[in-house]
Amino acid sequence: MSYYKKVTLKDIANDSGVSVSSVSMILNKREGVSFSNETVEKVLSSAKKLGYEISSSPKKNGTPAYNTQRSAKYIAIFCPNISNSYYSTIAQSIEQAAYQKGFKTLIITPFRDEGYDQTACQWYCFYYDAPMPTVFRKGC
To answer: How confident is the model at residue 128 (pLDDT cuts 50, 70, 90)?
Structure first.
């Protein structure tokens, strides 16, 4: 089974001939740094050519946010049985604390199935382009 590989900053950097950090600063419109118009155009052109997802939703400072999903902070909560009040209370507490710290949560209920557990973890890593999710596993 083949998966669609999302375009990374490294892909854009290789294509445009600049560093990964330069690509990041340009795409995130980082304040306090400047690049030549030629460099900015090369990076934006490479991003568009490679199919990099650019979000039109604004950041807090009003500038466009590029690929905001990838830069968001996520926590995966592996909860064996969400209908059990013990686990649902813990998951809810984690979700509330995470929200206050700017994290988004994803609750996964593998029902103590190790195969599903691994599949969900792989999916999470692929979809969010994460090396390894932050995982809470209680009672598994």
So the answer is: low
